[in-house]
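Suppose a classmate hands you a notebook page containing two proteins, each written out with its sequence and a corresponding row of C-alpha cells. How would you begin to make sense of it? This section walks through that situation. The first entry is reproduced here exactly as it would appear on such a page.
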Amino acid sequence: MSKGKVSLKEEALRALSKGEWGKALDHFKKHCSQEPSDLRSRLKMAEVLERLGRKEEAVQEYRKVAEGYATEGFLLQAISVNKVILRINPSLKDVNERLAQLYTEKFQEARPRHPFPQVPLFSELQDQELQSLVSQVHVKTFQNEETICHDGDPGDSIMVISRGEVAIYKQISERQEMRVRSLKEGDFFGEFGFFTDQKRHATVKALTDSEVFEISREGLNEIISAHPRIHEVLYDLYKHRVLDLFLSVSPLFASLSGQERDEVFKRFQLVSVPEETLIFNGGDPPGSLYLIKSGEVQIFIRNPKGEKVILSNLKSGDFFGEIGPLFNKPRSASAKTIQPSELLELTKAELEACLFQFPQIRETLKEITVKRLTRMNLEIFSHKKSEKVREAMV
C-alpha cells in the first residue's frame, strides 16, 4: 500500500475520533474505492453511514462486509455483522440464508484463500443446519478482566467466542482456583450446564475485550428437534471437554498446558467395566495405568491364608496400576471394580511414551507412588502385626 492510501485511512480514523462523521465518511469512501478488500475499513464506513442516519446505505455496506467475511471463511465476524443488519432492519431474514450458503460453499472448497477459524460447533454443520443455528445467536460484549459467569451460576446456554480471549477457572479447594485453559475465537463453553444440571461448572473471565455469541437452551433445542445431528456434534465435543477437564485436575497432569493435555488425552482409551470385575491380580506382569472417570475400584492383597486385605477404595479422579509399569515389576496388589465404572486406560507402551515426552510427569508419578508404597507397606505391616497378636491370644 502506498503512503497516500495509508494517509486516507489515517485521516478517516482521525476524523472519526473527533466525531466528524461527514469528513470520516468521505475519507473512508476514497480509501475503500482503492482498497475494496479492506473489510475493517468498509465496516467502519457502514458504521458511519448508520450514525448519519443513512440506514439503507449502511445496510447495503454491512451486507457487502458480511458476505466478504463469509467468503473469506470468517464466519464469526460475518454473524456479528449480520446481527447489526437485523437490528437495523429485522425484516431482512434472507441475510442468514445467504451467510450459511456462502460459508458452506467456502468450507467445502479444497483451498480457501484464508484458513478457517476453528469453529467446531459450526464447521461440521450442513447449510440448512447452519442457517437455523445462526438465527438463534445473541451477541454479548465483555470488557477486559470482566467475569462472564461464575462457577455454580444458573446457566445452560452455549457461548461461542467471536472475538477476544477468555480464561476458564476451576475451584479445586475452598481457597484455591486453578486456571484450566484459555479459549480464543471459535472456541465455545457452557456445554456442561446444557447437558447436565443447568448450572455453570467453571468461572469464565475475559482476558481481553471480547465478544461472545450466546445460544439459549430453548433456541438450541428448537434447532436440534429439526436437525438432530447438531446434538451429536455438540455431545462429541462435550465428551472431549469433560475428559480434558478431568485430566486438568488430576495431580498427574495438572502441570501440563491445554495443548500438552490434548497430546496425552489421545493416548488414553475409555473403557466401561461392569461391577465386580477383576482388572488385574497381584503378581501379574506390569500392564496399564488407569484413571477412574466414574465408579469405584478396590485395591487389595491376599494374606498367607488367602484372606482379602483391603488397602483402599478409589473413586473418580484417582489413578492406580502405576507401580508395575513405572518400576517394571509385577503387580503388587489386585484391583477390581465394586460398582460399574468408566476407566481411562493408558497402556504400558503409551505410558512410557508420555513419560519420555513429558519428563515432569515421571517425577510427579514417582513422588506419589513412593508415598503410596509407604502407606501400603505400613498397612501390610500393621495387618501382619494384628494377625500375630490374635494368634498369640488364641
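The notebook's second entry, a different protein, reads as follows.
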Amino acid sequence: MKKLVNLACGTLALVVLVVALRTGSAAEKTKGPTIKKLGTIDLLMVETTPVVFKDRLYRFEYVRDNYHANKTGASYFRFIDVATGVATPASAKGQHLGCAYADGDTMYVFGTDKWGGSRITVFQSKDLKEWQSQPALNLPGWGLYNTSVCRANGRYLMALEADKPRELVGIPFTIFFAESKDLLNWNLLSTDCAYSKEKYTACPALRYLDGYFYMIYLEARPGPTYESHIVRSKDLKRWESSRLNPVLAFSKEDKTIANQKLTPEQRKAISQAKDINNSDVDLCEYQGKTVIYYSWGNQQGKEFLAEAVYEGTLASFLRSAFP
C-alpha cells in the first residue's frame, strides 16, 4: 500500500514539475519588451521625436515659449545632435506640438498652429538649417494637438490627436488619421478610423510593421494617473490592446539624473516633483537598439524629459508587445 502511495505521490510531483516548467517557459515568452529607464535629461521639455537622419541620431524638440532657455518670446522647433549635444538653428517660430519624420535625404516636420488649432503645417529641409513650408491639413472646427507620422505600403499615415468636434471625438482626447502619398499633401481618413472615442487617448506614436499599425498612446487611469499603452490594428478601425500594458508607467527611475549638466536647482526640482505620469513616448531604432524619449511629471505643467532604451530592434520591440 505504501509503495502505491509513494508511486502516486511521485507521479503527482512529476506532473507538478512539468506544469511548473511549462508555466515558467510561457511566462518568459510573454514577458514583453523590457525598457530600461536612463533618467531625466531636461526640464519643461515634453514633445520630442528621436530620428535618424544621414546616419546620425537627432532629437527633434518642440521648444515652448516658457522653456527655461528660450529667450525669443515664442515657441519654435529645433534638432539636437545627440552625440554632440549641438542644437540646430531655431525654426518654425510660433508653431506647436511638432513631430519629425526623415525620408531619404529630407527631413519633414509637422507643426500645429496652436494648442487646439485646426491647421497642420509641413516643413521640409535637407540640411536642418534652411526650411520650406506649406499647409498640410486645414480642418476648420477641429481642435488638434500632437501628431505622429509613419510609412505603410507606399503611403504615409499621420495620427492626429483631437478634442473637437465633440460629436466626433466622444471622450477627449481621440486619435484620428490622415494619409499622403508625398508627405506634403494630406487628406483626412474616414472618422471611423479612430482610437478611441470611449476614453482618454492622447500623445500618439504611430509605426507600421507586418501588416499592422502599432500605436503607443497616453491613457488616463484612476487617480488620476497617466500611463503609456500600446495597441495595434490592420485597418485603423478595429484595435487590439496588448495584454502586457502599460508600456511605461511612472516610477522612481524617472528621477534618475541622466544629464550631468543639470544645475543643483534643477536637480532639486526633479527630486521634489510630483510624478503621476509617463507620456509623450516616441522612439526610433539606432545602431540595433530602440531609443526612447518620454515625459514625466504631474501632467499639469511641471514636466520633465527622460530617456530610455530597449536593447533590441524596433521590430523586436513592437512584436514583443503582442506575444
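A careful reader of the second entry would note: The mean pLDDT is 92.
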